[in-house]
From TrEMBL:
The lineage of its organism: Eukaryota, Viridiplantae, Streptophyta, Embryophyta, Tracheophyta. Coiled coil: none annotated. InterPro entries: PPR_rpt, TPR-like_helical_dom_sf. NCBIfam families: PPR. It comes from Sesamum radiatum (Black benniseed). This is Pentatricopeptide repeat-containing protein. GO terms for molecular function: mRNA binding. PPR repeats lie at residues 62-96, 97-131, 132-162, 180-214. Pfam families: PPR, PPR_2.
């Protein structure tokens, strides 16, 4: 029942945000194809009616359900409602997991609420939820887009392991958005400071293939590390 409930909520949210392709795919999975024309016309407000129906039947929410709803609200840029839903989740004494925090962090960064994102980062650490590469990629991308390059560099350089530093750009592209010139430069500089020359060169090549150029600091660090030799 929990899986079906979460899937149906996801369908409602995708439909309300005009993500017809996702709705269509979800309906095929759940064998709801005959109802596609009706479902795709629904609005996010419909989700509230469904939720009230679950409450009336005393159906308990779980973390998966809340994560699905949070994801849909942030996709629809309904940031205030997403944060309110997070408070509702806590009020029901459910423990947010890593996906919950990463979803909220991504929503906050999308809304350029970088200070709030950092606060959530500290909260999740205090709650014993360790950030992963996805977490860092979300925050660093948000910092770069907000022009806070110094903080982004410091955060990159504070990554616990070299492996996380190496894979951060790939994770950023997979979970957030394709890196731009600024994010490439910040991350390449971080790799060079860690003496990961081979990885830095690989990202430099990829950067060039995408039509971006290294900035003066990146070039200087390559020369200092004999990266072009």
């Amino acid at each position: 029942m929990g899986c079906l409930k979460s899937s149906f909520l996801s369908i409602l949210i995708f439909a309300s945000t005009a993500r017809v392709k996702h709705t269509f795919h979800s309906l095929l999975i759940l064998n709801y194809f005959p109802f596609f024309d009706s479902v795709k016309k629904m609005r996010v407000s419909t989700m509230s009616l469904i939720c009230r129906g679950f409450d009336a039947n005393k159906t308990a929410y779980d973390v998966v359900t809340f994560n699905t709803m949070l994801h849909g609200l942030f996709l629809a840029c309904r940031f205030a409602e997403g944060l309110k839903l997070f408070k509702d989740m806590q009020a029901q004494q459910l423990t947010p997991d890593l996906l919950t925090y990463n979803t909220i962090l991504k929503g906050l960064c999308m809304n350029k609420q970088i200070a709030e994102a950092f606060s959530f980062l500290h909260v999740m650490e205090e709650k014993g939820v360790n950030p992963d590469t996805t977490t860092y990629s979300i925050i660093i991308y948000g910092l770069c887009k907000d022009g806070k390059l110094g903080i982004a560099r410091n955060l990159f350089n504070s990554l616990p392991s070299k492996e996380e530093a190496k894979y951060l750009l790939k994770e950023m592209e997979r979970n957030v958005c394709a890196p731009d010139s600024v994010t490439y430069n910040v991350c390449i500089q971080g790799l060079l400071k860690r003496k990961l020359l081979a990885e830095a060169k690989a990202f430099l090549d990829e950067m060039h293939r995408r039509g971006f150029s290294p900035d003066a600091t990146t070039v200087s660090l390559f020369l200092e590390n004999e990266g072009f030799r």
